[in-house]
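User: Here's a structure from my thesis project, written as structure tokens. My advisor, Dr. K., wants to see whether a designed sequence matches the one we expressed. Can you design one independently, without my sequence as a hint?
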């Protein structure tokens, strides 16, 4: 039964960065319809697909991060740095997102903004560019659960409802897309409820 098996995707397949190419789905602050946030010609653009409301922003924003191997819990992490003043420092002390241990790390320029839960705005269920509510947004036990766009939503449903989860085809070790998921979503006891909620979002 092939539908019970799923191959995971490479890490970062569904990230804010990748979604910005095709459109990160958000809720229009004017009409409540669906709008898209895209990165085009060095600008972040919001365009509502319903009322036509548009916004744009030039933002070097989230293309900066501190990457570290945590000395305390041993996990590898990326912490995006949004504060433009902090981005000018060569080294910053940041807490490990897994265990909170603080250590200095080099500030790097990056074209990638990854993760499901890495960014503060995403954790509140908002896009990190304009701060609008994500379009595919629901919650589980009071915690926001979201998808960046329809493809990401389909991936989450497929992954969470599969019985057998495999590493990506060309996997050579290291993190995969599913490593991005918060524990809340990976817990077996939550999966069925979660899939139902996500499927409801698909009807939006
Ligand atoms: Zn609108
Ligand atoms: Zn740690």
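Assistant: Designed independently from the structure alone:
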């Amino acid at each position: 039964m092939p539908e019970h098996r799923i191959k995971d995707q490479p890490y970062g397949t569904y990230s804010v960065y990748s979604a910005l190419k095709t459109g990160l789905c958000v809720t229009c602050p004017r009409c409540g319809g669906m709008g898209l946030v895209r990165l085009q010609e060095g600008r972040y653009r919001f365009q509502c697909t319903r009322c036509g409301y548009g916004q744009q922003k030039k933002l070097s924003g989230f293309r900066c991060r501190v990457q570290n191997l945590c000395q305390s819990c041993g996990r590898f992490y990326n912490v995006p740095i949004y504060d433009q003043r902090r981005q000018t420092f060569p080294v910053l002390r940041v807490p490990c997102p897994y265990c909170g241990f603080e250590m200095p790390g080099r500030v790097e320029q990056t074209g990638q903004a990854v993760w499901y839960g890495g960014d503060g705005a995403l954790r509140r269920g908002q896009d990190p560019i304009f701060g609008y509510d994500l379009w595919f947004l629901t919650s589980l036990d009071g915690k926001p659960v979201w998808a960046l766009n329809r493809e990401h939503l389909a991936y989450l449903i497929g992954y969470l409802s599969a019985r057998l989860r495999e590493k990506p085809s060309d996997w050579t070790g290291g993190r995969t897309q599913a490593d991005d998921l918060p524990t809340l979503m990976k817990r077996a006891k939550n999966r069925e409820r979660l899939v139902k909620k996500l499927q409801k979002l698909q009807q939006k």
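When you compare it with your expressed construct, this may help: The chain has two domains: 2-61+114-202, 64-109.
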